[in-house]
Amino acid sequence: MTDVGFSCGCGTLKGIVQDASPRSSCHLVCYCRDCRAFARHLGQVDKLEPGGGSPLVQVLPAKIEITQGADQIACLRLSPKGLHRWYAACCNTPLANTVGSPKVPLAGMWRPQFARHDAFGPVVTNGFTKAALPGGPRRDKGLVRMLGGLVRRSLSAYLNGSVRQNPFFDAAGAPVVQPVLISAEDRAAAYRD
Ligand SMILES: [Zn+2]
Ligand SMILES: [Zn+2]
């Protein structure tokens, strides 16, 4: 079990993921258009995998500790029902995707913010490959494993009480900063594949 450090592009926001291991995480590439639009909106398209996939590491939010620059945490949504997409406002580095409630203890962390990510093991899941651009994989893989890990980790978080620890939501379950819905114009630009 290792602690793995992460940092936004300019180094203002830093943190660690505790107890990183392949079992405590799911290393995936998501080819969905929403994740790609988020990366494009923040000017991070060059960090995508071939085929326009977003490299992510799903972990329990309780394992994430922001050690500096927490005041830079910002949140946007691509649509009114979209995920909460957290990023560092100082330099537009994606941090993580979550649903709108800490009751689902899941954060899909943007992998490029980790200087080293070998502790998470290799990519085990490719999701939404139907939406991949040319050059991406043609078939999804590892979705059952991903869901199994999600259920297993969520149960453990509820059982040990750590479900209440979350860097993106306060004790009452409210987001630490108010998510901002992007404009229709920005949305059109972000989804232009
Ligand atoms: Zn930064
Ligand atoms: Zn996605």
What is the global morphology? globular
State mean pLDDT (0 to 100 scale): 97
The CATH class label is: Mainly Beta
CATH T-level topology: Metal Binding Protein, Guanine Nucleotide Exchange Factor, Chain A
Task: List each distinct ligand once.
Answer: zinc ion
What structural category do the secondary elements indicate? alpha+beta
- Major sheet details: 8 strands, mixed
Poorly predicted segments:
none
Radius of gyration: 16 Å
Count up the domains.
Answer: 1
Ends: how far apart?
39 Å
Q: If classified by CATH, what would the architecture be?
A: Beta Complex
In short:
This protein has 193 residues and is of the alpha+beta class.
Helix and strand arrangement:
Elements: E1 2-7, E2 14-20, E3 26-30, H1 33-41, E4 54-59, E5 64-68, E6 73-77, E7 84-88, E8 93-98, E9 107-110, E10 125-127, H2 143-160, E11 180-181, H3 184-190
Helix pairs in contact: 1-3
This protein binds zinc ion (2 copies).
Structural key phrases:
193 residues, alpha+beta, Metal Binding Protein, Guanine Nucleotide Exchange Factor, Chain A, 3-stranded antiparallel beta sheet, 18% helix, globular
Q: What does the model show?
A:
- It is a single chain.
- With 193 residues, the protein is of the alpha+beta class.
- It has a single domain, classed as Metal Binding Protein, Guanine Nucleotide Exchange Factor, Chain A.
- The protein is 18% helix and 28% strand.
- The protein is built from 3 helices and 11 strands, in the order βββαβββββββαβα.
- The strands form 2 sheets. The protein has an 8-stranded mixed β-sheet with strand order 10-3-4-9-8-7-6-11.
- The longest helix has 18 residues.
- The radius of gyration is 16 Å and the shape is globular.
- The N and C termini lie far apart (39 Å).
- It binds zinc ion (ZN) (2 copies).
- The site of one zinc ion has 6 residues, from helix 1.
